[in-house]
Amino acid sequence: MTLLATLDPADADLTACLARVMAAVLKPGDVIALEGPVGAGKTHFARSFIRARQGDLAEDVPSPTFTLVQTYEDPLGTEIWHADLYRLTHPDELVELGLDEAVREAIVLIEWPDHGGPLPDPLKLGLEPLADFPDLRRITLGGSELRWGAMARLPAIARLIHRAGWSEARLIPLAGDASSRRYFRLIDGERSAVLMDAAPGTTDSYVAMTQWLRNRDLHAPKILAADQAEGLLLLEDLGDDLVARVLEAEPELAPRIYDRMTDLLVALHGHPPPDFVLPLDGPELARQVGLFAEYYPAAVGAPGKGTEIAGLIETLHAKLAEDVPPVTGLRDFHAENLIWRDGDPLGILDFQDAVAVHPAYDLVSGLQDARREVDPMTEETQIARYIAATHVDAERFRAAYALLGVQRNLRIMGIFTRLAQRDGKPRYLAFMPRVWDAIQRDVSHPALAALAAALDGIPAPSPEVIERIARA
């Protein structure tokens, strides 16, 4: 057994908080061996865990000292077994209790596990009262690194939540983004917050951009508490009304929503970019678009095609865009990363990779969305709206917009191909025809004739071509 993490000292509230955190991540087939002397808090931990899993339907959770086993069910239908083996007379009784099957199909919490014989790769949670402070305990997590290594994060999460005054909150996993970060919603009565769990030491850029945006009245989520060394942030909850969901549910709001998106960019671009963001200039745009030539042509039967595209992007950027002062670009500015708040300003998500870039970059990102159709008239209206608000040279802006559209979308084609072939994630291939159509519209701009020629002979992502990529 490997010692994975320690929580020391922990009072009753922090112990319960750890149980609630653990309740958010365990799944059927997970077995927790609760070890410690009488009065160490094993039942307190189990009770907090079970009630967190049950949420609003939480039952009383008595100690199973005399019944040996109590079973519960959460709202998703997951069975939770709470066993106390202190009075077990022989390990064979586990079969009579059904515990041998439960450890394969349910979440199982076992007090006094040593009375029942070997368990199938459990997470061992030890509770040891501190000699001079009987109300405090030392909690240890131990188990195989391969199976339980991710649990080492949980005590740090519990410590942050407890310190921030959210120890009574129930945690609910949220859908994450394409990165390794994960998110939880904390619900405590009428209030809620969001926990970001990122890799240790990787939140500095997020915190810096949050402060920069909020100081300019742009609504990034407020940071409520942080442990940046551990990569943990407790954030204001902006709600579930992603612009993408609102557009799907209420398409009649599209003109108003896209107006607000464009106006947000106008406001953002009214401030010089911070000095801590990296430039996304011609050479870097050329480097990034190299993903297209590296993956897509060979995957669709045109190996060697497209190798000149990166150089053309850099040359055209110098000609069409380099003379314009860069602005702050959020990079992933689209309907999945914006929160509709009706009369309040749009909420902004996923901005830690901000760059200094040409003003058209984020407008392209929002209007040429790989995940959803944007009406061509909406795109044209918003380009015109941005030009009118910022007084940029319309002809040059449209040329730069088309160039950055080609660059961004070709890179996306490369990424989607790589995700399918290298990472076994083919679901993004369904977006390829929409992305390719945007590329064709962009290269039709007279200033991009050389790029159009460079794409000649590279097959479009027809259903047959997509099937070929998926099979490779």
UniProtKB/TrEMBL annotation:
It holds the Pfam family TsaE. GO terms for molecular function: ATP binding; metal ion binding; transferase activity. GO terms for cellular component: cytoplasm. Its main location: cytoplasm. The keyword Metal-binding applies. It is found in: Cytoplasm. The keyword Acyltransferase does not apply. Transmembrane segments: none annotated. One of its GO terms (biological process) is tRNA threonylcarbamoyladenosine modification. InterPro entries: Aminoglycoside_PTrfase, Kinase-like_dom_sf, P-loop_NTPase, T6A_TsaE. Residues 172-390 form the Aminoglycoside phosphotransferase domain. Keywords: ATP-binding, Cytoplasm, Magnesium, Metal-binding, Nucleotide-binding, Transferase, tRNA processing. PANTHER family: TRNA THREONYLCARBAMOYLADENOSINE BIOSYNTHESIS PROTEIN TSAE. Belongs to the TsaE family. This is tRNA threonylcarbamoyladenosine biosynthesis protein TsaE. It comes from Paracoccus aestuariivivens. The gene is tsaE.
